[in-house]
Amino acid sequence: MLKMGLIGLGRMGKYHLNLYETIRGIELSALSDVNKEVLDKTLEHHNVAGSTDYREILDKVDAVTVAAPTKYHHQIVKDCLLADKHVLVEKPITTNIEEAQELFEIARQRGLTLHIGHVERFNGAVQELKKIVRNPFLIESRRVGPYDERVKNDSIILDLMIHDIDIILNIVGKDVIDVEAKGSKVYSNLPDFASVNLIFENNAVANIIVSRITQKKDRTLSISQEDTFVFLDYTNQDINIYRKGSSQHIFGERELRYKNEYITERLFVYKDNPLMLEIRHFVDCVKGNVVRMIPVEHELRSLKLALKVDEIISKKEGRCEVSV
């Protein structure tokens, strides 16, 4: 039985907490949050150790989930790794690439599992993409929703767009050579929406739009390739595939019309809670039952590109040639 600890009892931390009791092979052993009132209230419903100082719970666990604010990730994760604890940390792991590299190197040296919580990887629809996407030439991604005061101090790129960057990099499988990025502030002191174009070395193009000021929530991905158009809905975990059927020109007395028919296929998707699947994968990696889904170098690649996009927007550069 793997003894788990949870550091951070905010919204994301509570999602993890609610799932711990449903996953075989783990036992919730300790909780930590700097807010004593929140911690004490949570401990009323969980008979485990607790402390406002996360370092005091490390001797009671084998592994931890870190769901604290991003600015504290580096120090917390480093302390956990140096105490020989496996770590699942919510994305982004850090706000600079050097700190992330340091943490993965510590984990490597100590033979520990360090996993970044990119939960969309475990979305059932995303899991099916690898079976149907071969050589995409155009990818369009939208991740938009209403404003939440809770995220006003977070980068929209590191908070939202990093999901899409991560998935698109793994779909295309080629290096990005050019980035164009724009973003604007509306309600907060950081950009509240952004549009990014990525150009890959094989000439594939990806357009990503993210917004936290759109009243209707929409999380979709569309992929164009030579013989098919794929449309994915993250929220419903659905995939529709459109294949070309037949086309014909129709001649009338005063008009010429073009008729194009498509065959639509709705792919069967195994739907489950992506976060639960992610925690299970982490536990299996710790126990040595599986190889990690995403290699470390890919983890760092997604963060590196997200940070570059953030930099382009903040400096109002608009465009930059890169090699990621």
TrEMBL record:
Domain Gfo/Idh/MocA-like oxidoreductase N-terminal: 3-118
Molecular function terms from GO: nucleotide binding
InterPro entries: Gfo/Idh/MocA-like_OxRdtase_N, Gfo/Idh/MocA_Oxidoreductases, GFO_IDH_MocA-like_dom, NAD(P)-bd_dom_sf
Domain GFO/IDH/MocA-like oxidoreductase: 148-223
Pfam families: GFO_IDH_MocA, GFO_IDH_MocA_C3
Source taxon at top rank: Bacteria
PANTHER family listed in its UniProt record: BILIVERDIN REDUCTASE A
Protein's recorded name: Oxidoreductase
